[in-house]
Amino acid sequence: MLQQETQEETIEAIAGGEFERQPVPASNWKGWGSFLGMYAGEHAAGTEFVIGPLFLTAGVSAFDLIIGLLLGNFLAVLSWRFLTAEIAVRYRLTLYYQLEKICGKGLVRFYNVANGILFCFLAGAMITVSATAVGLPLNMEMPQLTDTLPTSGTYVVIVVLIGAVISLVAARGYDTVARAANYMSPIIVLAFLACGVVALGQLGVGSFGEFWEIWGEGSEPFPGQIKYTFWHVVIWSWFANAAMHVGMSDLSVFRFARKASAGWTTAAGMYVGHYMAWIAAALLYAVYLRTPEAQAFLDQGLAPTVAPGPLAYNAIGVFGIIAVVLAGWTTANPTIYRAGLAFQAVLPRFSTFWVTLLAGGVATLAGLFPAIAMKLLDFVALYGFILAPFGAVIVFQHFFARRAGVVPDYAERSGLGFNPAVFWAWAISFGLFYFISWRFDVFLSFVTLPAWLLCGVLFLLLSRQWQRSAA
């Protein structure tokens, strides 16, 4: 036992002091201010300039968007506060090390790789967003909704440079990531607010009634998009960050919190970013849809481009370009940081600095392909659906394991390298509900919660069966 502890302390020292394989000590706990800035910066982000317009391409009505986002984001905040933050301050472990105790090193290694890669893809979309702002004064060809490959050599160079800067910031650890977010988030929030106000003026809106007349009942979805209803908006906005809250990825963040009440700070991200910013960005796109360029796309049966840089520039000029670049940075930084932790759990003897740079390289490569950003609504839904059920394993163990007669952290206690109860709980829930979504054309976010609940219940049932058999 002493040898194992010595090995873990050695690994911790090599890893750079981010406490990847031990609880965060009290000397490193942080107040709510660290999380407020980080969440406001991360979720008032460059991707909001994409997501807001994509709601319009789905033909969503004013009521469905305004009230649906109000409810869906509230459910997300509750999930962070009473699930993620509660468990994080109880154990103060990263998601990856906590899963290792439950699943075994063999199984969690595959999860960590998949999780890290998906995080990198998400960060790559944010790099794409920043590139549309940097490329604007260089007359870069902007990616279209249907583009998959890089649009030009200029686009490639800009993405690589932005990815390099973001990766270096993320590699310096949590303190640097949080500090960068705190500096940049007020600028980004102000920019989104200014964009919304300017867009209302450009639309000729002087009252709520005039706003309603313009947006009203929405429209038919654009080519290649599906129609969003009230419940599409509620469920999608709740589970847009499913991997982070019900999927427990933000255990890696809130393990630094002094109290679980720090989970309420996520409201800054949800209602500034995922509410005000999405609506402001949608208004920018509404302005663009009135231009001859956008009408030409629609006349050809094509969806007009959703390029955040030009949208923000048309509203507030150079300040818009700066805001889009900073917004991409503040979201990609913590995302690459999380991906680095995932890869570091697979490669524990490599420093967090270098594995985070590796994650940044994968994110930069993903950013070269604009399809991820242009299909962000679909990608985010799939991303949450894949990863969220693993979080149910942690949640159900924390709240129900002993009452269900299940030994907590069974893989660690028994020396098990591969816990079949976890694997089959995830595989059955994922396979069943993905088949339902595909076969009956059910919106994927609608089946995320049922898959999460089924995975948790199956984990308890299968764990009890396997543990009794082993005993």
Automatic annotation (TrEMBL):
<keyword id="KW-1133">Transmembrane helix</keyword>
<dbReference type="InterPro" id="IPR030191">
    <property type="entry name" value="CodB"/>
</dbReference>
<protein>
    <recommendedName>
        <fullName>Cytosine permease</fullName>
    </recommendedName>
</protein>
<dbReference type="GO" id="GO:0015209">
    <property type="term" value="F:cytosine transmembrane transporter activity"/>
</dbReference>
<feature type="transmembrane region" description="Helical">
    <location>
        <begin position="268"/>
        <end position="291"/>
    </location>
</feature>
<feature type="transmembrane region" description="Helical">
    <location>
        <begin position="311"/>
        <end position="332"/>
    </location>
</feature>
<feature type="transmembrane region" description="Helical">
    <location>
        <begin position="442"/>
        <end position="462"/>
    </location>
</feature>
<feature type="transmembrane region" description="Helical">
    <location>
        <begin position="153"/>
        <end position="171"/>
    </location>
</feature>
<feature type="transmembrane region" description="Helical">
    <location>
        <begin position="110"/>
        <end position="133"/>
    </location>
</feature>
<keyword id="KW-0812">Transmembrane</keyword>
<feature type="transmembrane region" description="Helical">
    <location>
        <begin position="65"/>
        <end position="89"/>
    </location>
</feature>
<feature type="transmembrane region" description="Helical">
    <location>
        <begin position="416"/>
        <end position="436"/>
    </location>
</feature>
<feature type="transmembrane region" description="Helical">
    <location>
        <begin position="228"/>
        <end position="247"/>
    </location>
</feature>
<feature type="transmembrane region" description="Helical">
    <location>
        <begin position="183"/>
        <end position="208"/>
    </location>
</feature>
<dbReference type="GO" id="GO:0005886">
    <property type="term" value="C:plasma membrane"/>
</dbReference>
<feature type="transmembrane region" description="Helical">
    <location>
        <begin position="379"/>
        <end position="396"/>
    </location>
</feature>
<keyword id="KW-0472">Membrane</keyword>
<feature type="transmembrane region" description="Helical">
    <location>
        <begin position="353"/>
        <end position="373"/>
    </location>
</feature>
